Amino acid sequence: MSDHELAARLATEAGELLIGVRAELVDATAAERKDAGDKRSHDFLMAALAAERPGDAVLSEEATEEERANSARLSADRVWIVDPLDGTREFSELGRDDWAVHVALWEAGELVAGAVALPAQDVTLATPNVASPPAPPARPRIVVSRTRPPAIALAVCEALNGVLVEMGSAGAKVASVVQGVADVYVHAGGQYEWDSAAPVAVARAAGLHTSRIDGSPLRYNQADVLLPDLIVCRPELADAVLAVTARG
Questions:
Q1: How much is the pLDDT for 171?
Q2: Are 184 and 233 a contacting pair, CB within 8 Å?
């Protein structure tokens, strides 16, 4: 099985597991669903990667601080970067479908494979073959958080005479650009490598622009796993977006 196929299979299977957790805990509290989803998906992915790729390192959001700081991954040739449940708030709210599972592979300095499962939508987007989004409408759609849209995204929306689209998790937002539901995703103010690794791999496979908000490359498997900002957008909009974001 290729790395692309493995990423897609594991993201999809973790998503199916999470759908089961939701059904099992339909009468539980939101906090109980969050905790159970995070733990069970993390445990599944860690066990599956240990079985399928025993020589590779893994960086997971749900790992302990000590595990994340393990210097072995920094010298490893191959590191899987996973977010077992991206969008715990949305997952905990029964009926919402804007949450995701991220599975990406970093090798020798680059993202080489990735999958974003949207389990409640019964969709998995995975490298290497991701369809480019359809032609956009006249006014670009800028996807933002439904609870805390960053000021920089609002500035981009104003500069492009765009329309705001509210959505939950980072993976769901990037997927919306890949699927043609939105055209621009700009984030600033705090994310980590697992929030964007798989979505960026998928977006690149679809031919989209990806970068930091100052236009510099997104780098993964770093000692400091904070990767606080990014842009994912249609390539024809990249210059206009960067004209706003590069000013800070």
A1: 94
A2: yes
